[in-house]
Every structure is written in structure tokens, then in C-alpha cells.
Design goal:
258 residues; 6-stranded mixed sheet; 6-stranded parallel sheet; 34% helix; globular
Length: 258
């Protein structure tokens, strides 16, 4: 049986094993998926487990999507362009990094019918996940405004985020509001409620505090499902036609029953 895993710092909130193991079952693949919590100093050692064949592929999440790149032998064009890696496989004895967040977020916008063309899209956060999302938005001809705690040539601060109107879209890529800190929010209700909609890539809880501030809001669970399916395509070098909505609904039912 082949083993796959998610690398990250704090993973108790993760639904990745649930999603990947369901995908494996639908694809008739004899595999299992697990969580590998680690600190920064352990990254290289854990990546060597992939080289040695103990694991067959990894996903990468907060806070290592950028840091992991320095340990890889090769990085795909899209991951290089985006500047972060969330999927790793061994190819001809070389560790190769990919980014499937781009595909996942693109799928999420299409699934929920969120039209970003010519809209002001305020992207909260500048970490690894934000890089793929900004690329998607720019490819869809959105006007992207990155928001950070620190002002730079390419960002505005949260204090400057005061002029949102009813046609603007807020996308949260920060971990603020993620379980167990479910009462946190990167923005106030006063600001958030003015936007056309909110897309929060957090998936646990299913409705974040930020999402509750706007009548039209979507969490990141479908993005997670879609990027997971794409990661498996990369690991197995094949494409399987899977009904991702079936995986989404299955995941939601399991979560509801917990």
C-alpha cells in the first residue's frame, strides 16, 4: 500500500486525510493518507522519507509552502512562477515540487459562480496560499489589491481598507478564524458587510467569523477537494474523471456527524 501525507506545523484541523482517502476509494487505488506534523528543523529529514520510499507523495501546508522549496531538486514552472509549493513527488530520484492551489481556487470560483472580472478583489494575507490565489485572480482579469499588516509597494494595510463597496470581493488567505480560534476575524463586520461576497479559504469551521459578516460567503472546502484531486493526478501521472461534488458532499456529511 502506498502512503501519502500532509506536512505542516499544526494539523489537527485538517480534513485532507478524509478527502484523499475518499478519492483513493473512488479511483480504486490501494493507498492511504496521513498527517505529518513537524517543525522547520525536521523538514529535510521528512523529505528524505520520500526519497527512501517510505512515502509516495506529500502535500504541504502552513507554514512551509515557501520554505520547503529550498530542499527540492526541481520545481515546476507554475510553482516557480507562483512562488510556493504544496505538492511533492519523487521523479527519477529527484524531489519535484508543484502547486495545485491554483487549480483548486480556480475550480472553487467556477463552482460557486463567483465572477471576478474587472472587480476589486482584496486578498487578505501575503503567505504561500495567497500567491496562487493572486495568480488566479490576475488571470481572470480581476483588479487585485493585497492587504497585509505591513505596508509595501505591492500592498495596503488593514487600516487602509476602508473604501470597500458593493461590487468588491474579499478573499481571506490568512489563518485568522481557523479552528480552534474561531472567534478571530481579520476584518470587522462594518467593512466586510459592504462587499459583494467573501471567499475564505479556511474550511474549519465551515462558517468563519469573517464569513458570518457577509450574506454571500464561501469557505475553502471545495478548493481543498479540487486541489487534492489535482495532486493525485500529479502523483500517479494520470487523470481520473471524478465527481468532485460527490467528494465535497461526503466530506460535509462526515464533518457534520463529528
Amino acid at each position: 500500500m502506498k502512503k501519502f501525507a500532509l506536512l505542516g506545523e499544526h494539523l489537527s484541523h485538517s480534513y485532507s486525510p478524509l478527502i484523499h482517502n475518499k478519492l483513493f476509494k473512488l479511483k480504486n487505488l490501494n493507498c492511504k493518507y496521513e498527517l505529518l506534523e513537524c517543525n522547520s528543523s525536521e523538514l529535510e529529514m521528512i523529505l528524505n522519507k520520500l526519497r527512501e520510499g517510505e512515502y509516495s507523495g506529500y502535500n504541504v501546508t502552513i507554514p512551509y509552502k515557501k520554505e520547503v522549496m529550498k530542499y527540492l531538486d526541481k520545481i515546476s514552472d507554475e510553482a516557480l512562477f507562483i512562488g510556493s509549493v504544496n505538492t511533492i513527488k519523487l521523479e527519477e530520484d529527484k524531489l519535484v515540487g508543484y502547486n495545485t492551489d491554483y487549480f483548486g481556487f480556480m475550480y472553487e470560483l467556477e463552482y460557486f459562480g463567483v465572477n471576478v472580472e474587472n472587480k476589486n478583489c482584496y486578498v487578505l494575507g501575503t503567505g504561500g496560499a495567497s500567491l496562487a490565489i493572486v495568480k488566479v485572480l490576475k488571470d481572470l482579469n480581476a483588479n487585485v489589491i493585497s492587504v497585509s499588516r505591513t505596508k509595501s509597494d505591492n500592498t495596503i494595510t488593514y487600516e487602509e481598507l476602508n473604501n470597500i463597496n458593493s461590487e468588491d470581493i474579499i478573499i481571506n488567505t490568512t489563518p485568522l478564524g481557523m479552528y480552534p480560534n474561531i472567534n478571530d476575524s481579520p476584518l470587522s463586520k462594518d467593512i466586510t458587510s459592504k462587499a459583494k461576497c467573501v471567499v475564505d479559504i479556511i474550511f474549519n469551521p465551515s462558517t468563519t467569523k469573517l464569513m458570518s459578516y457577509n450574506k454571500v460567503s464561501y469557505n475553502g472546502l471545495m478548493m481543498l477537494v479540487a486541489q487534492a484531486d489535482k495532486a493525485e493526478d500529479i502523483w500517479f501521472n494520470q487523470t481520473n474523471q471524478i465527481d468532485l461534488n460527490e467528494v465535497l458532499e461526503y466530506t460535509k456529511e462526515v464533518i457534520k456527524g463529528e
